[in-house]
Amino acid sequence: MTSFELLKLLGNAQDEYIMDSRKRPKKPQKPPVLKIAALAACAAILIGLGGTMLYVKPWTSGSSAPTNPPETLSSPAPSAENGSTGEDVPKASANPLDSDGIALLSAAQSPAMPQTDAERIKAWQENQVSEDTSYALNAFAYQLGSKVLSGTDDSVCFSPVSLYQVLSVITSGAEGSTQEQLLSLLGQGDVDTLKTQMQKLYQVNQQDTDMDHLEFANSLWLDEKQQDGENQVGFHQDWVMQAAMNYYCDVYAADFSSGAANAPLAAWINQHTGNLMADRLESFSMSPNTVMAAVNTVYYHSQWVEQFLDTVQDTFTAQDGTQTTCDFMQNTDMSGEAVVTDRYTKSYLQLSSGQMYVVLPKDGVSVDDLLSEDTLWEMFEDSSYEAAQVEWSVPKFTTDTDLDLKDALTAAGVTDAFESDAASFSAIADTPLYLSSVIQGTHIAVNEDGIEAASYSLAGMEAGAAAPGEAPVVEMNLNRPFLYLITASDGSPLFFGVVRSVE
Length: 503
Description:
By secondary structure, the chain is an alpha+beta fold. The chain is built from eleven helices and 18 strands. It is 23% helix and 31% strand.
C-alpha cells in the first residue's frame, strides 16, 4: 500500500473520527490584547504549504467547501449525536503507522486562538520571533519588494509574510543546493530553526476579538489522479505529517489532472479570506500537470487608532500625469512623528494591531527612484523619528494585483527549485518534483474604517526530471504616488505596496 493510499484510507473516514527586528517607532507598542480593527486578508498558495489542523480527506468536484477545523486540540469525543461509539476513532500514536498500516495523523491541529486577555498576553510574551528572524522577514520584504513593486505604471501590492510562510514549507521538503538557495532567501541557517520561528510567528499573531482579527491558515493538496501506475508520485507520508504537524496544515486529496480540484481549492481560499476574493476566484484554475499545491491565508482586521475626522474631495495626480478627483481622509496627529529627508518624508498611522508606514517622495522624486533594495532598507529601517504635528490627507484607494513571482524569486537567487533537472525535493516524494509557477493575487482597500485586504499566492509543483505647539508641522498630503508598508503588532510585514493611481 502506497503512502498516498494510506492517506486516502484515513481520508475516507468521517470527519468527526479524524484527529485532528525590526526597529519600532518611538510610540510604545501594546500587546494585541489592547488592539482594535481594519480588515485585511491575505492568502498564499504554494506547492507544499500547510496550516491549521491536519485532516486528510478526498475532495472531488461534487464536494462542498471545507468547514473550519475544530477549535480544540484533541480528537472529538464520541457521542450519540455524531453516531460514534468510540470504537473506530483512531488513537494517538508515536508511530505514524499502526500494526494494521493505518496512518494515525494525530493532533496536528493549529494552536487554539487565544480567547481571553490573559491568553493573548501569554501568547505575546512566549512567542516573539527572534531578532534574526525579524531581520530576515524585513530583508525578504525589501528584496522582493524592490522587484515586484517596480517596472509598472500601476499600483501594486503584495504580501511578504504570506509568501515567506509558503516558501518555508517548500524549504522543509528540499535538499542540497535547492534548500540552500531557499534558506538563503529566507535568511535562515537551517530548516529546524525556520520551523520553530514559523510556529512562533503563527502563534504570536493569532488573535480574535470583537474588533480585531489576525489569523493564518494553511492547507496541503495532494494530487489523486497521478498516483496510478507509472505516474505514481509516491508522496512521503512522514513529510506530509511533519508539514501538517509543524506548519498546522489541513491536508486534502485533489484531482488536478481533470480540473476537479480548482473549485474546492478556490473555495478554501475564499473561505479563509473573508469572502473577499470571491469574484476573482470564479475563474481560478491550476495546470493539470500539478501534483501538489500548498495554501497559506492571512486574514487581518484592524481599525485606525485615531479615526479620520473629515473626508474632502481633492485631486490625486497619478504617475502618468492623469488627475483624478477622489475622497481624501483628513486628520491631524498632534503627537506624531516623522522622518524628513531631501528625497522623502516618512511617517506612520497607528492601527489597532499594527502600523501603516507611509513614504511620500519629495517633488521631483518618483516612487521608482526609491524602490532599490538599499533605499527600501534606508527608508523603512530608519528609526530617527522626530516629534511632529503630522497633517494627514490620505486618499481612499483600492488596489487589485496579480503577480507572477517566478522571475523575482529567480533574480533573488532561487534558481534550482524551478529547473526540472536541478530541483531536489526528495523529502516530499519519490518522483522528482520542481516548482513550475509561483503567483500571488492581492486585494487591498483603505478607507475611514481601516484596511480591508485579501491576497493569495500560488505555486505549482510538477513532476519532471516633543510638547504640542513646539513640534514642527509635517504635511503628509498623499496627492501623488507613495509607498506604504503595513505591519502586524510584532512588526511582521503583512502588506507592502505602492499607489501610483487611485480609483
